[in-house]
């Protein structure tokens, strides 16, 4: 069977949602509805798996990282709306084209520090608390910032679209931490490293909007790209995979690959192996079968689905929600703005239901979820107490997560 590819889907706004139940249009009503949802008896169409108290699986998207200062795609200040010329790189371009990789890495080099200093927010912490209280079975995320792993390492989180904290070689598949790679980019591109220091000092990189970047003195082309006099994209250099450089891999045909670098260690395009790629699923790239199967298993072993901060515009996420629906699972959605095909998830709901069969709320999850956690504590719900201070310290960063840098 053909593996699903990642495509660029709906970039415009979707129709506004129908709020369910109707009183979920206020914060108090939404909290009550979500409390009913999490505490509801198992759906009769599901088997014994849903009798487990921690039967809810959570599916998250870029909307939940907005409160960490990262842009989403389709929100009010989303990448597709703010930067009209934004176009992500495709997998085949990245793999086949040295020039495309130079441009990608130049932009990525400038984008990295903002991502590196971003932290998980109240939504991630509330999910951690709901996990501690025994409501959540696992999390599936489309986000590549690794915030879930930082915020709740004890609650399983599957990164459906990979992660930016590492590079992975497309030849030998070894990984390289991004912070080491970033230092290599700075060493190989001193003029860009200087520009990065200046741009960080001026605050020009605090926004994705080309206009505000230009206003803060960053030299940009009409398409929003950086225009660095004396150091255009065509001169940007990036390193080769250190493993492949030391031991060029053998090709499937049985011949030895060649990995060439210049005198400073920068990748030469005549190489036949050793290209490092961010460990994310790029547009036009297949999700690895084990990841796809693990995501399906997460749905199949759950009793309820809670969708947070995503319009489900990517097919790989939408099909998981559809899978839950096809199994008769109650679905709750918290998202600002419409969600792809959402009327399907709530069709034929009993008009008198109070959240136990379905919830649709249009609010910021970083406000709503902490209130839900407080409400559940007051009810005495859940199987354990709030995490201790020691557990809360898990938030202290010990690796480097990053948000989408597909641009
Ligand atoms: Zn390699």
UniProtKB/TrEMBL annotation:
UniProt keyword annotation of NAD present: yes
InterPro entries per record: DHS-like_NAD/FAD-binding_dom, Sirtuin, Sirtuin_cat_small_dom_sf, Ssirtuin_cat_dom
Active site per database record: 161
Name assigned to this protein: Deacetylase sirtuin-type domain-containing protein
Organism annotation: Pseudogymnoascus verrucosus
Record-annotated membrane-spanning stretches: none
Ranges for domain Deacetylase sirtuin-type: 39-382
The UniProt record lists the keyword Zinc: yes
Family in the record: Belongs to the sirtuin family. Class I subfamily.
MF (Gene Ontology): metal ion binding; NAD+ binding; transferase activity
Binding site for Zn(2+): 169, 172, 241, 244
């Amino acid at each position: 069977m053909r593996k699903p590819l990642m495509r660029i889907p709906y970039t415009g706004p979707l129709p506004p949602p129908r709020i369910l139940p109707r009183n979920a249009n206020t914060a108090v009503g939404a909290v009550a509805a979500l409390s009913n949802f999490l505490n509801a008896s198992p759906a009769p169409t599901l088997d014994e798996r849903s009798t487990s108290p921690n039967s809810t699986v959570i599916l998250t998207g870029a909307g939940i990282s907005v409160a960490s200062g990262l842009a989403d795609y389709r929100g009010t200040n989303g990448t597709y709306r703010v930067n009209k010329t934004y176009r992500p790189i495709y997998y085949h371009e990245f793999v086949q084209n040295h020039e495309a990789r130079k441009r990608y890495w130049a932009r990525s080099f400038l984008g990295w520090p903002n991502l590196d200093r971003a932290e998980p927010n109240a939504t991630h912490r509330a999910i951690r608390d709901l996990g501690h209280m025994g409501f959540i079975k696992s999390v599936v995320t489309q986000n590549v910032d690794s915030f879930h792993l930082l915020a709740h390492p004890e609650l399983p989180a599957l990164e459906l679209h990979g992660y930016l904290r590492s590079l992975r070689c497309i030849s030998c598949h070894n990984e390289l931490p991004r912070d080491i790679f970033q230092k290599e980019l700075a060493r190989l591109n001193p003029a860009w490293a200087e520009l990065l220091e200046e741009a960080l000092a001026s605050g020009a990189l605090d926004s994705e909007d080309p206009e505000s970047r230009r206003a803060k003195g960053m030299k940009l082309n009409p398409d929003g790209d950086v225009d660095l006099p004396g150091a255009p994209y065509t001169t940007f250099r990036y390193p080769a995979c250190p493993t492949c450089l030391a031991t060029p891999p053998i090709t499937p045909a049985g011949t030895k690959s060649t990995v060439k670098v210049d005198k400073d260690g920068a990748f030469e395009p005549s190489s036949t192996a050793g290209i490092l790629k961010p460990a994310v699923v790029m547009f036009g790239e297949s999700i690895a079968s084990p990841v796809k199967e693990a995501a399906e298993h997460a749905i199949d072993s759950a009793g309820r689905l809670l969708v947070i901060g995503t319009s489900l515009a990517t097919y790989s996420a939408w099909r998981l929600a559809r899978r839950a629906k096809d199994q008769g699972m109650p679905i709750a959605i918290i998202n600002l703005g419409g969600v792809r095909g959402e009327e399907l998830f709530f069709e034929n709901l009993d008009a008198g239901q109070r959240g136990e069969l379905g919830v649709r709320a249009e609010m910021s999850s970083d406000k709503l979820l902490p209130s839900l956690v407080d409400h559940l504590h007051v009810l005495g719900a859940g199987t354990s107490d709030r995490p201790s201070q020691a557990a809360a310290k898990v938030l202290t960063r010990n690796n480097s997560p990053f948000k989408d840098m597909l641009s």
